[in-house]
Design brief:
Layout lengths: L4 E3 L18 E2 L3 E5 L2 E6 L1 H7 L12 E4 L1 E3 L12 H7 L4 H6 L4 H10 L2 H17 L2 E7 L6 H17 L3 E9 L10 H22 L4 E6 L6 H13 L3 E6 L7 H7 L4 E4 L5 H8 L4 E4 L1 H6 L8 H7 L3 E3 L13 H10 L5 H8 L1 H5 L18 E4 L6 H4 L6 E6 L2 E4 L26
Helix pairs in contact: 5-6, 6-7, 7-8, 9-10, 10-12, 13-14
Length: about 425
């Protein structure tokens, strides 16, 4: 209770498309009641106190309460960072060149394979705690740094353990098709061997393991072709996995159109999407997931065309792409900043993209992403007076509490606000004296 604003994002339990994203459902002078981990009611504080007598009261102290942020694209299970590559990029070396020198994903693969499951789990637990401290309550985590049968299954076991033990909601995605590992390079025959391993050996084991909810493929010239991506994703669907796709990040290769045709839940990156790709996503139910932190960190001047996608009627989500090489950030509100300042989204569009549409990009928009009766009590409290401050104070950690299904993820703690309240101006005739 006592929140300055409650940003509900209330509405249909699906992705919001086009102009629907303009309404974030901002309410004032209301409280939120939670029962058995779900939103029970929204209304006046006195009415709810009467209806839910004896309930624990959390005083929001004039902050802004939002749905918990849904980070629908991360690679959070990895070992060491790749900070040396940032200097290489500054010296003019491109993504593919760094990869050809043994850097990029291959560097993370070597490091990942050398680490034990327990070590990877311990590292990831600490990272999720930091993610939650910025307002995230749901996080998707991909495999993809193992690139062998044993190591990919190891990655998914780590994600499964995180899902079981973390107070956050964790969704697992199998990304065995993240790259062609070094040992399968050098000839078309070896490349075909790896594709066969993915489809006929690893995928059945992923299915039997029962941890991954989605399959993803890095569909990009020089990585996996459209035909290869289609084959892997079709087999994944037959195995009962939902579909996601890394699409059109560096070149307009038709990834968005493929995602739409396969009815994938999301097509992610899209910095190089074509006009045909925009039209295909707008006509589909596939969510276009923007990862603006990646292009910023890579020093690219061109971001994904969120404005064109929204104006065309597509559903747009925001996510961090948290990973060791191209987006080493756990700061989801910073993605809202970039959404407004770089992608030309309104604050309402950015908030919807980070909540309802992020949930839709994980197939869980019927359970989380909005503050409405019946939905999970996944909540984030920010110590600000107006939701427009969330993207404004860029880089700041404004979150003072998060809850998933009513249980704390990030401990509730009131801190000072960055924006002081306006001075109180006395009306004419009133004394300036204050009680001593």
């Amino acid at each position: 209770m006592n929140a300055a604003q409650v940003v509900t994002c209330a509405g249909p339990d699906r992705a919001r498309k086009g102009s629907e994203m303009r309404d974030a459902g901002i309410l004032k002078d209301v409280a939120v009641a939670v029962s058995s981990g779900r939103i029970a009611a929204i209304g006046g504080a006195r009415d709810l106190e009467h209806a839910f007598g004896g309930a624990e009261v959390i005083d929001c102290r004039g902050g802004v309460l939002t749905p918990g942020l849904v980070d629908s694209h991360t690679h959070a299970v990895f070992g060491r960072g790749r900070f040396e590559e940032q200097e290489m990029r500054a010296a003019g070396h491109g993504y593919m060149e760094i990869a050809s020198r043994g850097g990029g994903i291959h560097s993370s693969v070597r490091d990942f394979r050398e680490r034990s499951e327990q070590e990877l789990y311990d590292i990831a637990v600490a990272r999720l705690q930091i993610l939650a401290s910025y307002g995230t309550t749901t996080v998707e985590i991909k495999s993809g740094y193992g690139l062998s049968v044993d190591d990919e299954l190891k990655a998914l076991r780590v994600i499964g353990r995180l899902a079981a033990a973390s107070p956050m909601r964790v969704v697992a995605t199998w990304l065995g098709a993240h790259e062609i590992p070094h040992e399968y390079r050098g000839s078309a025959a070896r490349r075909t061997e790896y594709l066969d391993l993915l489809r006929h050996d690893l995928l059945p084991r992923v299915k039997a393991q029962g941890i991954a909810r989605f399959a993803d493929v890095f569909c990009e010239p020089g990585v996996f072709t459209l035909e290869e991506s289609r084959a892997i994703l079709r087999d994944s669907r037959k195995a009962g996995l939902g579909l996601k796709l890394h699409a059109d990040e560096l070149e307009p290769a038709g990834g968005a159109e493929l995602a739409a045709s396969l009815k994938a839940v999301s097509a992610d990156h899209l910095a190089a999407i074509s006009e045909k790709g925009i039209a295909a996503l707008a006509a589909s139910g596939t969510v276009a997931t923007m990862l603006p932190g990646t292009m910023l960190f890579l020093g690219k001047t061109k971001q994904a065309p969120a404005r064109a996608l929204i104006d065309a009627g597509a559903a747009v989500a925001l996510a961090t792409d948290f990973n060791p090489g191209t987006s080493p950030t756990v700061n989801f509100p910073l993605m809202l900043t970039l959404g407004v300042s770089q992608l030309r989204m309104s604050v309402a569009e950015a908030v919807v993209a980070a909540t309802v549409n992020g949930a839709a990009a994980l197939g869980i928009a019927g359970d989380t992403g909005q503050i409405a009766p019946g939905f999970a009590a996944d909540l984030a409290l920010f110590q600000i007076d107006d939701v427009r401050e969330l993207p404004y104070w860029y880089g700041a950690r404004l979150c003072v509490g998060t809850w998933q299904a009513g249980a704390p993820c990030h401990p509730y703690k009131i801190v000072s606000k960055l924006n002081p309240r306006p001075p109180e101006i006395p009306s004419p005739g009133n004394s300036l004296a204050r009680p001593s």
